[in-house]
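DM from R.C. (forwarded with permission)

"hey, sorry to bug you on a friday — could you get me a structure for this? deadline for the figure draft is monday and I only need the backbone to look sensible"
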Amino acid sequence: MVLVHDSKISKKNKIDEFQSRYLKSLLPHVFRSEGDMVEFNPSKILKSLIKETDMNKRHASQITELVVRRIISSGIKFLSGPHIREIVCSILSEHHFENERKLYTRIGMPLMDYEAMLERNIDKKSNKFINPEEIHQWAARKISNEYALLRILNSDESKAHLYGDIHIHKLPYFDLRPYCQVWDPRMILEHGLPPFSNLKCYNKSGPANNLKTAISHLAKWLAIVQSEFCGYQYYDFITIFLAPYAIDLTYEEIEQILRLFIYEINQATVSQKSFFPFVSLTCVPTVPKYLLNVPAIGPYGRIIGKYGNFKDECFKLFNALTNIYIKGDHNGKPFNFPKREIKLEENWIREFESSYIKIIEETITMGSPYFYNMCPSWISNENVNFLKYITTGSLQTVILNLPRYAYMSNNEDECLSIINEKMELCSKILLKKRKIINNRINTKHLPLCGGKINGEQIFKLQEQKLSISFIGLNEMVKYLTNFELHEDDNAFDFGKKTVQHISEKCKKMSERDKVCYNLSEDLSGMSSHRLTRLDIRHFPKKAKSMINKHYANSCDLRKNLKIPLFDRIIKQGEFHPIINGRTISKIPLSEKDCNINELWDLIKNICLNTKTSNFLFHFNATET
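My reply, with the result:
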């Protein structure tokens, strides 16, 4: 009996071997990316389906069998890993395993898209230029964008972004990078570059012993750290914190060294990426009272008195930077980056009027810096503890499409209810980003952010904001009230009520989730164009009657209004105290407005008689 049994087993094995050999003869070989050819193995599909999608074994076996049947019946002579995955995804869709298909899909791009990028011409109107680094970054951004939509965000979140209910700013960087950061220069000045010693890949420089070395360290830090951020980088109070290094230097020496500073930031950022990231330096002509008694860091990272002792040096640095920006580069071209942010306090306007008027000359001839109005009582640094490093930023921005919510609602209350719903969606997305960045720091994918000084991490997650912004307040108000913001007091009041509602909702969510949701303006303009296009597609009858080319940014009035300029400034400034994040009024001016004294009078009027916090000028603006 044993012999008979063995004979049956042997016969069955031969049949199985024949079937296996016959099946293999029907299936093509698979070309691998490693460069070799291997036999097609259905079990690899089965295992990968179970591993990648959590599909049960029975369903995974059925899908695998269907894939094998299709390959055989089609007579395909060549297979690759991506090709097999495409077939599997097609069958998953056909059998309504949509979530599994989403998890199993391959991310990438069509060959034609990549080739088109290789052939793209330079856009002369843009500050971007095409080089190999930009092409590789573009390809990487495409992949990261798909990854975020397919893997990180759930279906509701992905659809909300793709459909246009919201816009997730800098989505390709969602999986890896924080958005923007304000750095305290003292961190570098006191500890050298980099300011910590736990990175094996960097050789450490000690603290700077003179102004030239100090500006070199500060410029290089911006270039280095940009590798971990996708947005703005700021140095605050740069003229104050560099002042102790300017002792015994003549004005001409200071200007020469600061010119190197501007060039090094400008050129280093280009070497890191194919375009200028937004780099800003905030400048003041003197030391405000809340910094007078703060210990001053000087050469070799040593404390040399208080910052109040260096008012003269601060003033020299302030004027030297103005002169540099008025002259421009070797060819007279303006320095668009780093951008200067000029702070004004009420007593400074009188005391340093001649220096501020010099900045008006810069504004007219070379382009406007940002003006930061410190005059209103609600703007103050009095309670900030400058005895520690002040580093803060925003992890991510999600933008609300206000006109869309108006189209979806029947009245003002219903619109506010939809805003609440979309803000809750935003909070879920922002909390995911916060968790991701925390994980990236812990796994050392953000080694600079994870750096520590005296055991304390320089990038403090608890001090990072989760920003919610909005576009199209003017169009939302117009759709629901039949009036634009400037046309009717009730319409304007509803606009303020809406922004106040969003601000209060941010505060409530912050208390609930123990994080900082921060209401800010959308400053990029890109989201406005994108969401406008989507609304024209999805709500053509409603949207087209509301739009003047594209939605107004945040709480801006429509650009091509024929109303007195100062009326526009006052109305837009009314929203600034409500928005606790960054806000900027962009003020359009024409050639006839380019009078230094008149423009200075306008700036004083804005600072002293409006609620505007930040502003800049656009000259020769054809308001479209």
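R.C.: lifesaver. The mean pLDDT is 87.
me: no worries. The CA atoms of residues 347 and 375 lie 9 Å apart.
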